[in-house]
Design a protein that fits this description.
ten-stranded mixed β-sheet; alpha+beta; 2,3-Dihydroxybiphenyl 1,2-Dioxygenase, domain 1; eight-stranded mixed β-sheet; 7 helices; 25% helix
Length: 343
């Protein structure tokens, strides 16, 4: 890790060692609510999300798919588009917390657009507030989701509730700025770190939580020369299943359907997730995991640096030489691009 980054991470830890929230904090009042994917591959997404992972289909038309995991009418939405893109919808608890976040965005002169009508209906909300986040990732805020009768999924249950839909991992060339964004706008707290060498690249991961889930955001950065080896806006999306048997069954379904497995079943050292990573039709990874860790441990994780992303397993499975060369190419070409940061 370079010296400036090390100083930043040390300062972040010192400022987040208390479990008490400052006045007007929105910690614990934000969760990942939905993910909207733009893609030309709706047929593949239907097979992947419903038949492979095990979500249930809430709506299916030639223009869009809506998948459910719980009482929310829409958790994963795939909209037909000529190009791939992704937006992250963040559920905010109440008007007061929303006003705090909007005020912070205004203070940073980050333009926010209020949207209703058909676009909101697509997401299963009455209205939402959209703004560009790091890497020009579309961020969307909403309060009340549309709900429906309990979803019947191939998974026994998805773990959501106050912990939200799951987590996302994002690679960046500007980790300090991205972490500052999450801390200042959403009062995110650092749970811990991981360092590992993956596909010949030394990486540092920072895990941030905005509610009792161990992390809702993982920020990944290369050590040394700042590169971004992934072409997609997120590296992976994770959802959590209720039982270990769910993980094995979904893994077997994805294999039988012919979907590529980026990393086979293994266990992480920090959140203790037992999981596997499949490659989505849009190119980013999807992690399905199970953990014995409960909500009560959320403030007790030691802010340590784990060596290696896995205690066991998570071995590359269907990655080819072409895949590895593509990551190298993406990393090199990222040096020629300017990465947007609102901070």
């Amino acid at each position: 890790m370079n010296a400036n980054l090390a100083v930043y991470f040390k300062g972040a830890v010192m400022s987040l060692t208390t479990s008490e929230n400052p006045p007007h904090s929105v910690y614990g009042r934000v969760q990942l609510g939905y993910v909207l994917v733009d893609s030309p591959r709706l047929v593949e997404w239907k097979r992947f999300a419903a038949e492979g992972i095990g979500m249930t289909i809430g709506e299916a038309t030639p223009e869009r798919l809506a998948f459910r995991t719980d009482a929310h009418a829409r958790r994963l939405i795939v909209r037909v588009s000529a190009k791939e893109d992704i937006a992250l919808g963040w559920q905010v608890e109440g008007d007061a917390a929303l006003e705090v976040i909007l005020a912070r965005l205004a203070a940073r002169k980050i333009a926010v657009e209020e949207v209703a009508g058909e676009e909101a209906a697509l997401r299963g909300v009455a209205k939402f507030w959209r703004f560009p986040g790091p890497k020009r990732q579309a961020f969307e805020l909403f309060i009340e989701p549309e709900v429906a009768p309990p979803a019947k999924t191939l998974v026994s249950a998805f773990v959501t509730g106050e912990r939200g839909l799951g987590h996302v991992a994002i690679t960046t060339r500007k980790p300090a700025e991205m972490i500052a964004f999450w801390r200042e706008i959403f009062d995110a707290k650092i749970s811990d770190y991981i360092e590992d060498r993956i596909s010949g690249v030394d990486l540092h991961f920072t895990f941030l939580r905005v509610n009792p889930r161990h992390h809702s955001i993982a920020v990944a950065a290369t050590k040394g020369l700042a590169m971004d080896p992934f072409a997609t806006k997120i590296q992976h999306l994770e959802m959590q299943a209720a039982t270990l048997d769910d993980i094995g069954a979904a893994y077997r379904r994805c294999r039988a359907l012919g979907f590529k497995i980026a990393m086979a079943v293994g266990q992480h050292p920090n959140d203790r997730d037992v999981s596997f990573y499949a490659v989505t039709p849009s190119g980013f990874y999807f992690e399905l995991g199970w953990s014995s860790e409960g909500d009560s441990e959320a403030e007790a994780w030691p802010q340590v640096t784990h060596q290696g992303i896995s205690v066991w397993g998570h071995k590359p499975q269907d990655q080819t030489l072409s895949d590895k060369l593509a990551q190298i190419r993406n990393g090199v070409t990222s040096l020629l691009r300017t990465e947007y940061s609102p901070f």
